[in-house]
Specification:
The structure is a single chain. The chain is built from 9 helices and no strands. The chain has a domain of 170 residues. It is mainly α. It is globular, with a radius of gyration of 20 Å.
Length: 248
Amino acid sequence: MNPKLITWKYASPPYFYPLAGKMIPWFALLAVLLGIAGLWVSFFVAPTDAQQGEGYRIIFVHVGASWMSMFLYLVMAFWAGIGLSFNTKLSSMMASAVAPTGAMFAFLSLWTGALWGKPMWGTWWVWDARLTSELILLFLYLGFIALQAAIDEPRRADKAGAIIALVGVVNVPIIYFSVKWWNTLHQGASVSLTQAPSMAKTMLLGMLLMALSFWMYSIAMVLTRVRAIMLERERHSDWVANLKEVRS
């Protein structure tokens, strides 16, 4: 079959719904297995940091959550932009499905950052460039969710949300480069694509395993949520009625 025809086929909710249902258990299983391995390496295998002691281990959760909060925002904006440009229903549904998980990771990033900052900086919060821009990211997620919830007509809600999502993309590079552009308390990047990691290999392994676990979890949650959104928005469609008949 032509790959383009397959792509267009699964861009339709009736075909994507069962496909998503088949993928969810696999991604959920990967999330659990990678999470167990990541936590084991992070808390029981990785050595104690010479300067920060045992308290540094919160970064194994913090860094992965921070990465996912930024990455998921870009994914949300991508799908929102596709939906706005081509008026595709599934794209807008995907954007709506991504937002709550992205907001959760942004909150987790800020919370774990505060837990790390208290013993290292002596305070739970400072108006540091990276912390402030990450807080703005959380507000962008919440604004996207709130705006869509405030508009009853789904197509109008999708268009309004897409504008917020696309405008907010500018904040993502600000978060990433903030420690380079401004003099901040926040430490530099733990992992760089242009430089060899300065941490022990077991530390890097634990961090990457946790990030992969969060990634698999995000896919499973987004697919679960988009299926619920499909049923809600397409509840009057024939394929949803047939699905209910099969279940009954």
